[in-house]
Amino acid sequence: MSEDAAGPADSTHPALDAFAARLAFPLDPFQREACERLEQGRSVLVAAPTGSGKTTVAEFAVHLARRERDARIFYTAPIKALSNQKFHELCTEYGEGEVGLLTGDVNLRGDAPIVVMTTEVLRNMIYAESSALDELAFVVLDEVHYLGDRWRGAVWEEIILHLPAEVRLVSLSATVSNAEEFGDWMHAVRGDTDVILSEHRPVPLYQHVLTAKALLPLYVEGEGGLAEGGRLNPELRDLRARRDDGRHGGRHEGRGEDRHARDRHRPSNGRGYERYRSTRDRARGGAPVRRTRRISRSDIARALDETELLPGIVFIFSRNGCDQAVRQCLHDGIRLTTREERDEIRRRVHDALDRIDDEDLRALGASEWIAGLERGIAAHHAGLLPQFKSIVEQLFQRRLVKLVFATETLALGINMPARSVTIERLDKFNGEQRVPLTSGEYTQLTGRAGRRGIDHEGHAIVVGSDGLDLEALAHLSSARSFPVRSSFRPTPNMAVNLLQRMSFSRARDTLELSFAQFQADRAVVEQAREIRAEQDSLAGYEAAARKATGSDRKRWEDRARKLRRRIERGRRRVEARTGTIARTFERVVELLEDLGYVEAGERGSFDVAAYGRLLCRIYGERDLLVAECLRRDAWRGIDAAGLAALCCALSYEPRRDDEPEGRWPGGAFRPAFERTLDVWAELDDLAQRHRLAAAEQPHAGLAATMQGWASGWPLERTLEHAGVGAGDFVRWAKQTIDLLDQLAQATEHAQFAAGPETERLGELGALAREARRRVRRGIVETASSS
């Protein structure tokens, strides 16, 4: 383990020396150490701040793989946008013929020596025992802290547990507070894994608050101007105090201030602060502001422009808010581009949208979107069409778009470094209520600020308000890390895949190696230590009771009785946590046995039945429900458009718990969906009897729209009916296609004896392929192939 341990280049690392000679910058100590460990044949977990250059270590792994005869490397990313971005970067470096891409949507050169893929694709390859794993030397797990994701985190653990032992892992993580624990687990399950830690940001980050009067540093410069510490700027406290006084008849804030005293606290890029102040006042009619007012998004744009902190990202935790911000800037005449830049933007946008017809562009509101781009302003969120998001990213990287209003999805690793990051508020709506940002979220967001090799410093800005808690902001800005907590749990699909590859006892033992169990066991160790200390105290109480008389004896006996109860409760907690993953696996297998997916064999083994083998190819939260619907022929009589609607209902997750389903599609969908809900209710009861978490009930909120789209509706009608953004519709269309693909694959490889069952499943597989063809058209097709 290392904390930025440095070491000079030497001849014992010839591959690293050759790699470093090609770089335009010297390797940082943590990069060099991680690369040296890789060249020594070890795996590494690299935890470092955003923008510190972790991917250089992954690029060295690619370099190592290319030096070895017939060796292959898989580069995994958590989201398709990141996979696409890394694919293009590697194609530029090594040539298109050397790099493949597998994302579910795209299957391009899967036999190449370098293959970029999503983590789910790799997990599925492992379970299918694909021959593509035969020559695999390295796997890069980018953004491996996703392991804590509630919905998808288990995929990372499955990969780490089941990859062949000889494959070296290059795991890249944001700065997490339990990196040592994570690394200890990886070393325990895979061996020879080193943890390389770095807290150093190559580009220093300064913290600011944008007030209605000026942009002010959060910390006093010269006394810890960086986020690492220092004294809070007293002017910010004074401003808050004056606002409070103003509410009770106090003087106007700022009257009688010593301007020179204020300027002493400006950070190193102080030019532009007064220009912002004067420009802002002129924009509001020439007079200084006489009262506290809400800072508009146009004000933010002007402030960043005048203080030379563009290109910048403004995080607004609302898609609608991002779109409104762009409209407000357009209405207020914000323009951040030159004529030459506008011409370049028009040309690039025209080339990028060439494959989308004019009617669809009108339905997408492309003209307003392009108007924003030409002024250097754009929104970025999940509701945007993927092609639109990609264009925004490319224009921002080329410094043609100067200001992006984005939701937090932009912080997930996409390469869009900025000079400044602005956060509009320090809380967000989580679907139920407004909750404060965590230190990890704040770190992820502000980590975008400061472009290595371009900027000497980055700037994190929080928009001031009357309710801004300066102490809370100081805590967020100084706490750089967050813990990774496992979300791993056995699923029916996981169980049949494991039982098809290994014995029940070996599968059980393998799952006990999960990070979830590792963390639970460590917690158990702490609880056991507490119990031992309490037992020592109990012995002392009992000894004192034996010696005492009268009321003193009763007091010691009462203390001992309470402590025994506490010890017993602690013991029950320890027993409950020990082996929790294995017990859950046992319950899943019992459920599958009840349903006939697995059959008990000799000496405690299990055989996977025909529908169990079909379940092996169905992934997702409703894996067992889909398999049961196939087994029971619940979708009989459905047509291609209706099957697309059903798969949409089985994939769709509403953004709110109270989201209405709307009107169900017509035709054969209704009886098929009603039978699906009946199956779900039975499985829900069965899961409760086995003390297992049940899958969420299918939701038909977008089913009618998907049926219409699969029936040939034009885009404009589809989006009007859906009531969601184009990006949302495309995302759920892709999820629908993915499940249709799974149905086609599962039924094609179903291992039943020739007869009606095989014929029925074959017909359903053909219907799934037809439904897939109908959904994958227009903007869905261009988004899938871009």
From TrEMBL:
Pfam families: DEAD, DSHCT. Residues 299-499 form the Helicase C-terminal domain. Residues 35-194 form the Helicase ATP-binding domain. Residues 237-292 are annotated as: Disordered. GO terms for cellular component: Ski complex. It comes from the Bacteria. Transmembrane segments: none annotated. GO terms for biological process: nuclear-transcribed mRNA catabolic process, 3'-5' exonucleolytic nonsense-mediated decay. SMART domains: AAA, DEXDc, DSHCT, HELICc. GO terms for molecular function: ATP binding; helicase activity; hydrolase activity; nucleic acid binding. The keyword ATP-binding applies. Keywords: ATP-binding, Helicase, Hydrolase, Nucleotide-binding. Residues 237-261, 272-284 have a biased composition (Basic and acidic residues). This is ATP-dependent RNA helicase HelY. It comes from Leucobacter soli.
